[in-house]
Amino acid sequence: DRLIATFPHLQDASRLVELPDGRQALFCALKTDSFARWSWLDAMPYALFGSPVVSEGTLTAEDMRFVLDDFSKDAAWLSVNFDPIHPLAQPDSLGTLASPLTTHILRMEGDFEAVLRGFDQTARYHARRAEKRGVSARRGHGLDDFKAYYRLVQRAIERWGLVETPFPKALYSAFALLPETDISLWLAEFEDQAVGAVPGRLLHPRG
Fold it and tell me: At what angle do helices 142-160 and 169-176 cross, to 10 degrees?
């Protein structure tokens, strides 16, 4: 309900799927567009594996393939946002018609130099070049920084020739209210102006 309220142009496309063994699986999805009998679906929640949820027992890789194949029958496009640490979040669990949306994990052990050594040569070159030209990076805090991130997205949308941002301004404001232990925002600044931003979900090792 909160997603639909935040994204009024989307429709709830969630439904129950009966598995071959008789159990039911609730699969959550949003319809982003439609044409004739075809629809474009996104598995939700965004950036999380999230579902399906089975009525009894645990979900297996075979269950996941069955659900996605069944769900893809009436969809022209079905994209799945993977939680990269979920055991079933593997390409072979998508079946034949679904497409993955990639989420990257950046391990933050050590200092900046240690993290930078994990990048490829081109990324290291661009990072050093930006640093020499006076670009600095800092951790974002509060509503004003998330608004700055939203403005950067708007500028990118204009350059790409699109009509509107894929997510409304209200979502960025909602991000600003989340605990900083769960979500991070890094801003790149040049001459005191934000020129880039990267949001991230913080994953904490268990045990």
Answer: 150
Assess whether the previous peptide bond of 199 is cis (omega < 30° from 0).
Answer: no
Amino acid (1-letter code) at residue 131: E
What is the rounded distance in angstroms from the CA atom of residue 70 to the CA atom of residue 97? 10
Edge to edge, the sheet with strand 38-43 lists 11-12, 29-35, 38-43, 75-81, 98-101
Task: Locate 38 and state its tokens.
Answer: 């075809």
Q: Which two tokens stand for residue 162?
A: 């699109």
pLDDT tens per residue across all 207 residues of the chain: 666 666 677 788 888 889 999 999 887 777 777 776 677 777 654 344 455 678 888 888 888 888 878 877 766 667 776 666 667 766 666 666 666 665 666 776 777 788 888 888 998 999 899 999 999 999 999 999 999 999 999 998 888 777 677 677 888 888 888 888 878 899 999 999 999 998 887 665 544
90 Cβ neighbours under 8 A, 6+ residues apart: 61
